């Protein structure tokens, strides 16, 4: 085959000459192989088989299956080939080249270097002199094509668009959200007068087989426009989630690859960000800025770096975008300046779909800066939960990840938003109010704007005096030993929809594992050791961090 010609010619040269060219010849040969096999014609049959399998399962139509498979298949295939046919790695491994060198990160040493400068200062305790309130909304997933009285059970991932059925005026548990139901939430939140609002993704509906970059960005424009309409003078700190991407979940960290998303998101949501934050959002998909008039620094994370469904990470998952290094610098500067940090993103670190090596690095930074970080706020799950980060050496509680439930009803969720109370002096979260729409009741009155009820106040609901990490961990232990309390938590977790009626010892142990740890891998280990094959498969997909260096 012609692609082997450069290597053959190089090997035919005299040794002293060959040494000068065989490295580049090898790389050119491997690169040619990579490009040859990346041509889509070689994978047409495989993608067609994948579509047929999807259709044969009987859940979705051929159109849905074709859209979902074809949007993602070539990215997955390209990523595998770039990993397996990496010219620099293979030619060094086959000793045609002397460099680059591949150095596996010594995570233990990295943690040691990070932790050695941790100050002995205890975590600030709320003074109680004065408070402020701020809101969080997540997973909005509005659907411009939602129609009342359409089918709620269909052969597509998202229904309530066609046919004749029982889709309610304000929404349905099997569908994404009508715009007016989201707008009603904004109207009610406006009356609560939050000092600022955190928005942790996602805006587009779940019609992932029928999307494009412009389609997804239109939903960013819609949501951002409504926030701006109802909160023209209230800071809104937003970050994108996995559904902002096109295709869904797929986010490349190559420079400029996601310019359409990062620029578009910044243009839509940047009206309250300063110039430095906007530039950071456009270049790296993250940002940090001081909330005006305070020492509170808002830090937005791009959690696509830990999404295990992001095929681009198959090529390389080592600190993509340099985000861990960037966050370390941000937190160091915040500590030096006497600032307090709220950190927020879409994927929460305790999600088992958040790649463990990324999560462990962030968890170490949370431990190191536990006296600087006053709040962690996430979404993605559509459920109501919290999770305790633990110290890398002490295993003591260091922080609480607050995961707010979704505004969308998809699936089997009552639309929800959250109002936190913060201590003015320390910025510690001292309580929160969970607001929730009773969807069946709302649909009984299609012409009357529904009210999002105050579902519960955290401290009152769970009988705690504060929300410090140690107190929250104590609550977890109570939940693990009290079925009534466990059922209360599970009812809230499900936003009041079809809550379980019992929780035995196995159920309570599972809850303890889920809530006690801030890294998904730690939760899995608590549940019981994973099979060896599962760990091996994971490390094949997402190996321990390795850095490429030249000497």
Automatic annotation (TrEMBL):
UniProt source species: Stentor coeruleus
Cleaved signal peptide residues: 1-18
Localization per Swiss-Prot or TrEMBL: Secreted
Pfam family, one: ASMase_C
Function of the molecule: Converts sphingomyelin to ceramide.
Gene3D superfamilies: 3.60.21.10, Saposin-like
Binding site for Zn(2+) 2: 202, 242, 346, 380
GO terms for MF: hydrolase activity, acting on glycosyl bonds; metal ion binding; sphingomyelin phosphodiesterase activity
UniProt name for this protein: Sphingomyelin phosphodiesterase
Keywords attached to this entry: Disulfide bond, Glycoprotein, Glycosidase, Hydrolase, Metal-binding, Secreted, Signal, Zinc
Entry cofactors: Zn(2+)
Gene Ontology biological process: ceramide biosynthetic process; sphingomyelin catabolic process
Residues that, per the record, bind Zn(2+) 1: 139, 141, 202, 382
Disulfide-bonded cysteines: 26-91, 54-65, 154-159, 160-175, 306-354, 503-507, 513-526
Cofactor note: Binds 2 Zn(2+) ions per subunit.
GO cellular component, one term: membrane
Record family assignment: Belongs to the acid sphingomyelinase family.
Main location: secreted
Organismal lineage: Eukaryota, Sar, Alveolata, Ciliophora, Postciliodesmatophora
Database matches in InterPro entries: ASM_C, ASMase/PPN1_MPP, Calcineurin-like_PHP, Metallo-depent_PP-like, Saposin-like, SaposinB_dom, Sphingomy_PDE
The Saposin B-type domain, residue ranges: 19-101
């Amino acid at each position: 085959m012609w692609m082997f010609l450069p290597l053959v010619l190089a090997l035919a040269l005299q040794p002293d000459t060959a040494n000068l060219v065989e490295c580049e010849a090898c790389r050119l040969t491997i690169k040619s192989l990579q490009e040859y096999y990346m041509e889509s014609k070689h994978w047409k049959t495989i993608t067609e088989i994948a579509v047929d399998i999807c259709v044969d399962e009987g859940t979705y139509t051929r159109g849905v299956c074709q859209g979902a498979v074809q949007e993602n298949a070539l990215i997955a295939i390209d990523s595998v080939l770039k990993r397996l046919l990496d010219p620099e790695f293979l030619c060094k491994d086959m000793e045609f080249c002397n460099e680059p060198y591949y150095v596996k990160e010594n995570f233990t040493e990295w943690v040691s270097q990070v932790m050695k400068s941790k100050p002995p200062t205890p975590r600030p305790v709320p003074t109680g002199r004065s408070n402020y309130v701020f809101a969080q909304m997540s997973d909005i997933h509005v659907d411009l094509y939602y129609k009342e009285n359409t089918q709620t059970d269909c052969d597509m991932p998202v229904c309530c668009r066609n046919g004749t059925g029982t889709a309610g005026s304000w929404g349905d548990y099997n569908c994404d959200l009508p715009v007016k139901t989201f707008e009603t939430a904004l109207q009610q939140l406006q009356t609560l007068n939050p000092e600022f609002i955190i928005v942790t993704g996602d805006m587009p509906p779940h019609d992932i087989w029928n999307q494009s970059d412009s389609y997804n960005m239109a939903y960013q424009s819609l949501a951002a426009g409504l926030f701006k309409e109802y909160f023209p003078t209230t800071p809104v700190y937003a970050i994108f989630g996995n559904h902002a991407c096109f295709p869904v979940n797929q986010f490349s960290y190559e420079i400029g690859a996601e310019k359409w998303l990062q620029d578009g998101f910044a243009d839509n949501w940047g009206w309250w960000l300063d110039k430095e934050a906007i530039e950071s959002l456009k270049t790296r998909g993250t940002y940090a800025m001081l909330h005006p008039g305070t020492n509170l620094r808002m830090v937005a994370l791009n959690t696509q770096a830990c999404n295990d469904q992001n095929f681009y990470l198959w090529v390389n998952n080592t600190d993509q975008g340099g985000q861990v290094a960037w966050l370390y610098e941000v937190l160091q500067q915040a500590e030096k300046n006497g600032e307090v940090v709220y950190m927020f993103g879409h994927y929460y670190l305790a999600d088992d779909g958040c790649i463990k090596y990324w999560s462990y690095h962030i968890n170490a930074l949370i431990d190191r800066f536990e006296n600087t970080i006053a709040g962690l706020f996430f979404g993605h799950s559509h459920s109501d939960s919290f999770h305790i980060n633990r110290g890398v050496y002490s295993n003591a509680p260091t922080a609480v990840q607050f995961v707010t439930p979704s505004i969308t009803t998809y699936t089997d969720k009552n639309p929800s938003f959250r109002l936190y109370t913060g201590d003015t002096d320390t910025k510690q979260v001292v309580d929160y109010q969970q607001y929730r729409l009773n969807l069946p009741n709302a649909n009984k009155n299609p012409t009357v704007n529904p009210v999002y009820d105050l579902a519960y106040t955290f401290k009152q609901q769970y009988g705690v005096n504060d929300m410090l990490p140690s107190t929250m961990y104590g609550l977890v232990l109570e939940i693990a030993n009290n079925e009534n309390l466990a059922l209360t938590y599970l009812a809230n977790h499900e936003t009041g929809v079809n809550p379980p009626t019992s929780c035995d010892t196995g159920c309570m142990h599972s809850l303890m594992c889920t809530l006690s740890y801030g890294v998904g891998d730690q939760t899995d280990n608590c549940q019981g050791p994973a099979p060896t094959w599962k760990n091996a498969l994971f490390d094949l997909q997402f190996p321990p961090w390795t850095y490429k260096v030249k000497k």
